[in-house]
Write a structure and sequence with these properties.
The chain is about 45% helix and about 15% strand. The chain contains 12 helices and 12 strands. The chain has helices at about 5-15, 15-25, 30-45, 50-55, 75-90, 105-115, 130-140, 160-175, 190-205, 225-235, 250-260, 295-310, and strands at about 65-70, 95-100, 120-125, 145, 155-160, 180-185, 215-220, 240-245, 270-275, 290, 320, 325. It has a 6-stranded parallel sheet with strand order 2-1-3-4-5-11, sandwiched between helices. The protein has a 6-stranded mixed sheet with strand order 7-6-8-9-10-12, sandwiched between helices. α8 runs parallel beside α9 (about 190-205) and α10 crosses α11 (about 250-260). The chain is elongated and about 80 Å long.
Length: about 325
């Protein structure tokens, strides 16, 4: 079967070859409506412009990279899906890379994406060594951080006020009467978790309650490790009446640990998560959590990235979104002693 050419696209769309080329490369006076029509024809005819040829000519490849820690985490899979939807509607393809929050994987994937000549990268993963990002920023390579930030590096970032989210969780639990609390956190090299715990501790501090280091357990960011850590806390001599978990996966692990230990939630133990993923609505009991405005964050980050492709010298923005408390069934008042 003969491959579709740019001539076929032009004929089908009823436009010149130059107009098709301008639509592909975002050049010339092609209206948004006409560009969308041409892109639809390209999709229908399964026409793929030569990415390599475009890259060699210094043109856009209409491909972007997305680095996330773990595609199996519903929060990040939802980010990936939203990015892909936005990219598709704008004529872009997305290469999704799962880093597991490991610097060596981040470096490997960034080099791979550079070799693929992607137009820019959305980064939603934790970084201990931000040197590779600094090198990209120095080259004016388009980068936007999403749900993360890289301190001291001049790049766009869109994130939730994680400190405020932790503070909201603390104030809510305090308002329910909890004084004995513990935390399940991700590794502190993940800036979002560090800020969530910091905000939670601040909320407790304002009420005159301190959190001891042994009451903050560091976990791998998955249900299994959340379950392990929660089980260790539950078995302790002084069991807390509430657990603040730095993401919904850890909170679901805590729910499982409580069930296996015969501890009823929320009657004997309150559990609050963070992210408000789809999983928080299907647990039993349903999960109280701190919601991030994920759709808005992704839209803003995507628009910043696409905007910076044509203007690498634009002023870098740091957009901070406000989290919200979503109250469901997993939290209540502490048991009466």
């Amino acid at each position: 079967m003969k491959a579709t050419t740019i001539y076929d696209v032009a004929k089908e769309a009823g436009v010149s070859i130059a107009t098709v080329s301008n639509a592909i490369n975002g050049k010339g006076k092609v209206s948004k409506k006409r560009r969308e029509e041409i892109l639809q024809v390209m999709e229908r005819l399964n026409y793929q412009p030569s990415v390599i040829a475009s890259a060699l000519m210094g043109k856009k490849t209409y491909t972007i990279g997305l680095l996330i820690p773990d595609v199996s985490n519903p929060f990040f899979s939802e980010i990936a899906r939203t990015v892909e939807d936005l990219a598709h509607s704008s004529g872009y393809s997305v290469i999704v890379c799962s880093t597991d929050n490991r610097d060596e994987r981040v470096e490997k994937y960034i080099r791979l994406l550079e070799q693929k000549n992607v137009d820019g990268i959305l980064i939603g993963t934790g970084l201990e060594n931000a040197e590779i990002l600094a090198l990209l920023a120095e080259k004016s390579f388009p980068i936007v951080m999403i749900a993360r930030e890289a301190a001291g590096i001049s790049v766009h970032s869109v994130l939730t006020d994680d400190f405020r989210g932790g503070e909201l969780a603390a104030r809510y639990l305090l308002g329910k009467g909890h004084k004995q609390v513990a935390v399940l956190s991700e590794n502190f090299k993940v800036s979002s978790s560090f800020e969530r715990v910091r905000g939670f501790r601040f909320g407790l501090f304002e009420a005159g309650i301190s959190l001891n280091p042994e009451e903050i357990l560091s976990c791998e960011s998955n249900i299994k490790d959340g379950k392990r850590a929660a089980a260790a806390i539950i078995r302790g001599s002084e069991r807390p009446t509430a657990l603040f978990c730095c993401n919904d996966l850890l909170a679901i692990g805590a729910l499982q640990a409580a069930k296996e230990a015969g501890i009823s939630v929320p009657e004997q133990l309150s559990i609050i998560g963070f992210d408000d993923t789809i999983l928080s609505t299907v647990t039993n009991p349903t999960l109280t959590t701190i919601a991030q405005p994920m759709d808005q964050m992704v839209k803003l980050a995507f628009d910043l990235l696409i905007g910076s492709l044509d203007n690498a010298d634009d002023i870098k923005q740091r957009i901070v979104m406000q989290p919200e408390l979503v109250i469901r069934e997993s939290t209540g008042s502490p048991p009466i002693e």
